[in-house]
Design the sequence.
């Protein structure tokens, strides 16, 4: 299972409304919950925060990949969010984060979980790809970008 | 005439499709009296990439590595049971590295006649970085490749063996 198989129009939010790290996590979890992807929203929130407490998943160049191994899902779930102004996500380079890929995976799906994260790592290496993503106005544009 | 398929390799990644492929490979091996090997590859390349990209912490990498090794053992045991039920001798192998490269090397070093895979991804993107490891294996190995489809009829074939 790769990134494309998980990419779902209903789980893409543009623009994100959150202005803080915690609100961003809540917003993407709400999106998953609204689409009935979570077995236990509170557990998901707790497990994402637990991972963030080890070290922020805010990387460099405005990219953040909040992720958790959690029993709050029964299959891998991916939500994508784009913030217009950026959010302080405790990123490594100290800059605001604007591209968010949240991935939750159950404990028995570590192999596919790693593969999806690896797909995202490869894609986000491309500065032009990140620029195009940031300029996407809606979920359809994001889907089209990957399917081109 | 000798069978052109004496050695079969089936790649297992734990997905339903790969387990169906294993059932089909068992059916083939029994019918053709071929030697069958089931291979799982722990994708350490992806794990290392995630640490390099600082998406994973070192302790996370170790935790996931352990999980995936346990998955490998569990899925290979499951396939061995499926083969045992049909009295097919199965060799199981677990390797580590870049998945498609390990499959390619295994085939090169051991002269398999056929690689059995449990499906390839739908064509949704031409982006090279989004080709999955099964797609890459299919494209890069030197032997013929069989892609297993139609899960229900594979179950019937296996059950009626």
Sequence:
């Amino acid at each position: 299972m790769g990134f494309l198989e998980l990419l779902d129009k209903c789980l893409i939010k543009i623009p994100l409304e959150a202005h803080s790290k915690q609100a961003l996590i809540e917003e993407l979890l709400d999106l998953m919950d609204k689409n009935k992807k979570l077995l236990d929203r509170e557990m998901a929130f707790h497990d994402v925060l637990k991972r963030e407490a080890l070290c922020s998943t805010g990387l460099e160049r405005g990219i953040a990949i909040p992720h958790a191994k959690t029993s709050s899902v029964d299959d891998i779930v991916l939500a994508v969010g784009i913030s217009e102004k950026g959010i302080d996500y405790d990123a490594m380079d100290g800059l605001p984060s604007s591209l968010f890929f949240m991935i939750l995976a159950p404990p028995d799906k570590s192999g596919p979980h790693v593969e999806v994260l690896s797909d995202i790592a490869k894609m986000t290496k491309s500065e032009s790809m990140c620029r195009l993503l940031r300029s996407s106005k809606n979920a359809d544009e994001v889907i089209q970008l990957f399917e081109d | 005439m000798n069978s052109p398929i004496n050695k079969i390799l089936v790649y297992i990644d734990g997905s339903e499709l790969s387990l169906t492929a294993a059932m089909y490979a068992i059916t083939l091996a029994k019918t053709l009296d071929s030697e069958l090997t089931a291979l799982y590859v722990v994708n350490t390349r992806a794990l290392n990439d995630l640490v390099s990209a600082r998406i994973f912490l070192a302790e996370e990498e170790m935790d996931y590595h352990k999980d995936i090794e346990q998955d490998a053992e569990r899925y290979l045991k499951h396939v061995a049971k499926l083969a045992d039920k049909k009295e097919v001798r199965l060799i199981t192998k677990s390797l580590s590295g870049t998945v498609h490269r390990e499959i390619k090397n295994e085939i090169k070093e051991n002269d398999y006649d056929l690689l059995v895979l449990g499906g390839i991804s739908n064509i949704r993107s031409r982006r090279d970085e989004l080709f999955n490891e099964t797609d890459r294996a299919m494209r890069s190995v030197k032997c013929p490749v069989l892609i297993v489809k139609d899960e229900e009829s594979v179950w019937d074939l296996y059950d009626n063996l």
Remarks:
- The mean pLDDT of chain B is 91.
- Chain B touches chain A at residues 13-15, 43, 46-47, 49-50, 53-57, 59-60, 63-64, 67-68, 71, 121-122, 124-127, 129-130, 132-133 (CB under 8 Å).
- Chain B has one domain: 7-159.
- DSSP finds six helices and five strands in chain B.
